Amino acid sequence: MNSSKNVYASVKAYSKRGKLLVKADFQTLAESRDLEELITRIKNTVYADAVADVQKPYSSQSIESALRSQLANIHYSIAKTSGNSGVLDAYYMKFIVSNLKLILKGKVLGKSQEELETHINLHAEELIKQRDVVIKALVAKDLEEAVASLNSAQFGEEIAKAAALYNEKKNIQVFDTYFDKILFQHLSGAMKNYADKEATKLVAMDIDFYNILSVIRGKFWGLQEDQIQDLIIGAGPSSQELLGRMMAASTVRDAFNELSNTKYKDLIPQSENELDSVAEFERAFEMLIYRTSLGSFTKMFSFATIVGITKLTSFEVRNLAAIAFAIEQKIPTEITMSKLILEEE
């Protein structure tokens, strides 16, 4: 990577790091009595411009959409500033992937194009001139046609596999996992070109998160070992061995216990209920990624700071969207706060 661009991007990352919202800010936002009050309070933060054009009647959906546009702008500008970085391009793909997930899951549920359009924000695609891919899937009449429309896309094969596995298992989450696979495959391939240890650590943690969770979910869904194996992406020999042992374990609990001799041993969930234990593990791992991202700012001018701020701004927007949803649904503030990805006091 061009080092002068890297320096500039790192300075920009530090400046953004200083403007991240803190727990007290989220608390104030979460205490809003309604969405109108929430919008007023967001206007006192760095997200003022993001929500300036949100129209009444307010909905958590329209607020989230506006915030996602702002996040796309932030990530696009970070990626542009740091020159051609495959890693940042892979993280940017998340916007496109999450839209495609929504569309294919919507087709399964028989939702109309109009219904789906309210949930889709194409700003990220517009910035990189990739609208057509998503639009084609959106206007398709059913799942089959949507999958066929993506056939020529760079990830068509994985999407076809996802549809086949869905037809066999009838579990809609299959789409989440396969689309995540596309994303993390790109990330894994891009990371091979970087020597920055801290950045590599952050990306490797994301890939571990995906792989471990895919094995756990695969076991939970009752997939065959070869089906789970197909979800796994390039991992080093030690990771490969661990994932193999997890796949061979007889229950989800036994699979989790395979982590007891790894750096992730503290993340093993306590819950006996399988569904709860998966959710507990997912949250614990995301908190670890969040804390590691915060810790990436130890060395100025390193690529890690640029990856770190990309992760932290994503968590921030996700927290804001969760608050909007909770206020709309009248969920108590303390429950909302307990679900956010934040520094624990």
Note down, in words, how this protein is organized:
This protein is mainly alpha-helical. It has a domain at 197-301: V-type ATP synthase subunit C fold (Up-down Bundle). The protein is built from 19 helices and no strands. Helix 5 (60-81) runs antiparallel to helix 6 and helix 13 (197-220) packs across helix 18 (303-328). The longest helix has 26 residues, at 303-328. The model has no long low-confidence stretch (mean pLDDT 93).
Number of helices: 19
Identify the CATH class of the domain at 197-301.
Answer: Mainly Alpha
Level-2 CATH architecture of the domain at 197-301: Up-down Bundle
As for the CATH topology of the domain at 197-301, it is V-type ATP synthase subunit C fold
Strand content: under 5%
User: Roughly what percent helix?
Assistant: over 70%
Order of helices and strands: HHHHHHHHHHHHHHHHHHH
**Structural class given helices, strands, pairing?**
mainly alpha
Mean pLDDT: 93
